[in-house]
Amino acid sequence: MTDMTTIKVPVELRDRISRLARSRHVSMAVAVEHALDAAETEEFWAQVRATMTTPEARADILRETEELSGTIRDGLEPEDWSEYE
Question: pTM for this one?
Fold first, then answer.
């Protein structure tokens, strides 16, 4: 069994967690876990957006795209993948 602990939260917060858990038919622990997962995912993508929208990042992406664009026309014959469609 997973180790357990107790945390103190205000009654109002406990009630919110309880309502969320009931509405999703999961335990309160799972409801909290899903909420944290969603918050961490949101934070990750916010950081990606902040990082990728800087002028330096845009310049890096453009440079890398230009460097790799030559590999699209590598001189190889096209492969037939129709049997996998």
Answer: 0.62
**Buried b / exposed e across 18-53, counting CB within 10 Å, b at 16+?**
eebbeeeeeeeeebbeeeeeeeeeeeeeeeeeeeee
Q: What are phi and psi of 61, to 5 degrees?
A: -65, -45
- Per-residue DSSP letters for 21-45? HHHHTS-HHHHHHHHHHHHHHHHHH
Residues 6+ apart with CB under 8 A from 24: 30, 31, 34
Question: CA dihedral in degrees (71, 77, 78, 83; nearest 10)?
Answer: -140
Tokens standing for residue 17: 């967690």
pLDDT at 75: 72
